[in-house]
Amino acid sequence: MPDYAWPDAQHRTLIGTRVSRVDAPVKVAGQAKYTYDVHRPGMLYGKVLRCPYAHAKIISIDTTAAETMPGVKAVHIVQGPGTTIHWAGDEVVAVAAADEPTAEDAVRVIKVEYQQLKHLVSDAEPPQGSVQEEGPLSMDAIDDMLDNQVPAAQMVSEIQRYGISEKPTEDRLKELKEDGASDAVLDALRTATVHPEAASKVPSNYQKAAAQTTGDPEKAFAEAAVVSEGLYGIPLITHCCLESHGSISEWTDPDHLFTHISTQNVSGIPGQMAEPLKMPATNIRVHQDHIGGGFGSKFSPDRWGIFTAEISKKAGGKPVRIMLERDAELEVAGARPSAYARVRVGATKDGTVVAWQSNSWGTGGPGGGGMPPIPYVFSIPNQRQEHIAIRNNIGPARAWRAPNHPQAAVLTMCALDDLAAKLNMDPVEFFGKNLNLTKQRENTYREELAIASELMDWKQKWHPRGQIAPGDTGIVRGVGLSFHTWGGRGHASDCDLTIHPDGSVDIKLGTQDLGTGTRTCILIVASETLGIPMDAIQLQIGDTTYPPSGGSGGSTTIGGVSSSTRHAAADARDALFAKVAPALNTQPDQLECVNGKVSVKGDSSRSLSWKEACSKLGVMPLTIRGKNPDKSKPPDLTNSGVGGVQMAEVEVDTDTGVVKAKKMVAVQDCGLVIDLKTAETQCYGALIMGISYSLYEEKVMDLTTGRMLNADMGFYRLAGLSDIPELVVHMMTGKGYDERGVIGLGEPPVISPGAAISNAVANAIGVRVPFLPLTPDRVLAALEQKAGA
User: Fold this and answer.
1) How far is CA 462 from the centre of its chain?
2) CB atoms closer than 10 angstroms to residue 76
3) SS3 state at 288
4) pLDDT of res. 580
5) Using one digit for the tens of pLDDT, what is the confidence trace for 274-291?
6) Beta partners for residue 47, in sequence order
7) What are the C-alpha distances in Å from 189 to residues 177, 276, 368, 442, 585?
8) Does residue 201 have a pLDDT over 90?
């Protein structure tokens, strides 16, 4: 039977070593082509008229002046009269013109009449008596879900769970289908439970989304020696990809579409475009070379991807480019939901955590959003949780690198850190004592906690809260920690590997490289398996003409592409051995390929160079398709479930409230590491991103106008070079880790920075700053409250 297993440490030459990215030269030289750089022959420029109101109904649209303007090639109404707009900046009309200034002028002369509606853009704690119990969905709610592009599977789930307040007629179902409802949604509506008594209820913006109890929390709190209570929160932040969302679409003939798009999901885009464009997915080709950031926001073509194709068709099939401007990118391209909670935690005298109670709320925009997985990591035996989802007009939510986990870490780890402070316990001792509550990952966390403590020099730096007073300079320091977890099993992936008679090798798969080193890791696996240099292999990715591979989300890419590549390379290698064996007077299973040669095991004198060996193929190249998953080819090369520990050291100026990160430590496991260098850099990037959302990022809304106030790079601040402290990363490798197989790493290291930095600030100044980001005004307010206590 072929050997697909990952080679052990003694037989690896590349896997697990530090290999520089193969795409680094073209990127540092400015030669890498992103979607934003694509300029097709005869290309038109698209611009979009956006609604200025957070909640409004479109009454009328007049595009006459734009249509007659010289240079304008097409005008497309995206949302027509009668449509309800649910957030400011939503698309109303698109224009394609010969150049950008003309397109911008055309947008300005379009006349739209709106009826303004009452809006809500706050995610503050729900007012008393405003919360509505879970109930059936109205047809207006179904319309809203379609307008908000809620996935069909989620719509079906909610219809089946809650039922509906009125049964739709077949004519109404036909209207919904025209508005984009899938057959599955329509079938769910036909068979849903109807609750007519709910039709007269006025819907509330505040919906009870979860309520659950485990064990006996009342008894546990009554018996607890110490109880800590606190308010914690993490705000709505936007996606801020440096390459904005968008695409360039053209019709190569009346039935075939070619799209360059900035996406995390090359293979999946045609299937999502097919239904709204009413064409077969096989007639849609998607291409992307490089992407300038995604982080969970670029899985679908979006409404703008669809109407870019539609307006191209109106313009005679010419290429049309629509890339979001920076303000639109920040307003409408998705946001990470907010999460806030009032938390009570109880423990025995020795610090054993016995009880948890949380009343949480948050928003993901019009869809509301669900409860973060709290308490996080630690399975506290007695707990009660209630969560309220706020449905408002703040804009649509999207997956943001480890969806819901950064929020859960802040709400949980900050509450537990405050409990440790009330117990007068060192957090390392406190969390260590309760690691049994992490269940199957207890040993991993214990090992990681010890390593992180040593790398941070925790024993020297930690001090009880309030025991260090600021010196003459008003500068204080503190340290904090956090734990996190993630899944990361590899997604479905197909890979074609071809060995040519001249010795050349090429690999094709329809994956994408988000800048994480996917290209490099694919080549490492193929090179290791075939025993030839990485630069002897031609890799082609990023096109739907190649075998399909899953979208890059959930930290699933590395497990998927490494497994399919390993299967393809191992089968191709063994097929080559079958051709070469007679020439070396041996059996195929007695051959190996190492250092560019195919040799008899144990007798290097009986060998052929790689090129000589490939010549035995004759005139026909050898192409093998590898797949993941593939149960017919054990063992499973990927796995799921990782843990990590992070620590932060901060410096706080108590006069100005300014917080500076001084050192960050990340200790992380992810199974077998393919490329240690790119694994470490994933963690470095995550720590930097964590510093950004801990200290700076927040989508600030004007409560009166409903508009985002900081929709530009001047006021939506990200961490810069001067904000980056010493970063220390330690990957858990070797026995107990490598044999688990490859597990994704993209998301887990971004989860803990917010909690770790918040805990470090509390340690430094002796009081909790309840909400991120830890801006100077919030720090000074906490210090003032402490002084007045």
Assistant:
1) 33
2) 21
3) coil
4) 98
5) 999 999 999 999 999 999
6) 95
7) 12, 20, 21, 45, 69
8) no
Whole-angstrom distance, CA of residue 584 vs CA of residue 682:
45
Specify which residues 389 forms β-bridges with.
207, 362
Angstrom CA distances, 213 to 231, 345, 347, 356, stand at 20, 14, 18, 10
In whole angstroms, how far apart are CA 464 and each of 359, 433, 461, 766, 768? 28, 18, 10, 8, 13
DSSP, collapsed to helix, strand or coil, labels residue 149 as coil
> Which residue is it, tokens 């989620």?
154
Of residues 91, 734, 75, the one with CA closest to residue 451:
734
E-strand stretches of 542-613: 591-594, 597-600, 603-609
Q: 593 and 608 in contact (C-beta within 8 Å)?
A: no
The burial of 699, by beta-carbon neighbours within 10 Å (0-12 exposed, 13-18 middle, 19 or more buried), is given as buried
Please give the pLDDT value at position 412. 98
Token pair recorded at residue 132: 């509505």
Indicate the pairing of strand 475-486 with strand 206-214.
Answer: unpaired
Partners of 594 in the beta sheet? 597
CB count in 10 Å sphere of residue 379: 13
Asked whether the bond before 375 is cis by omega within 30 degrees of 0, the reply is yes
**Residue 647 exposed, middle or buried by CB count within 10 Å (0-12, 13-18, 19+):** buried
d(CA 627, CA 494): 5
Task: Return the H-helix or E-strand segment holding 756.
Answer: helix 753-765
% of the chain residues with pLDDT over 70: 97
* The one-letter amino acid at 763: N
Q: Report the 10 Å Cβ neighbour count for 611.
A: 14
Query: Phi/psi at 647 (nearest 5 deg)?
Result: -130, 145
Binning pLDDT at 50, 70 and 90, where does residue 196 land? confident
Global confidence as pTM: 0.93
Q: How many residues appear in the chain?
A: 789
Q: How many degrees, rounded to 5, is the angle at CA 40 between CA 36 and CA 42?
A: 130
State the amino acid at position 335 in one-letter form. A
pLDDT tens-digit series, residues 258-271: 999 999 999 999 99
Taking 90 as the threshold, does the pLDDT of residue 650 lie above it? Answer: yes
Measured distance CA(24)–CA(768) in Å, rounded: 42
Q: At what angle do helices 183-191 and 170-178 cross, to 10 degrees?
A: 150
Q: Which residues of 242-271 are buried (b: 16+ CB within 10 A; e: fewer)?
A: ebbbbbbbbbeeeeebbbbbbbbbbbbbbe
| Euclidean distance between CA atoms 320 and 43, whole angstroms | 6
| Interval 457-481: pLDDT, tens | 999 999 999 776 556 579 999 999 9
- Of 424, 284, 271, 436, which is closest to residue 353 (Cα–Cα)? 436
Contact at 8 Å (CB) between 50 and 89?
yes
Residue in 288, 290, 293, 289 with CA at minimum distance from that of residue 305: 288
Residues 6+ apart with CB under 8 A from 454: none
Strands 111-116 and 56-62 come out as antiparallel
Q: What is the pLDDT of residues 69-102, one digit of tens each?
A: 999 999 999 999 999 999 999 999 999 999 999 9
Model confidence at 200: pLDDT above 70: no
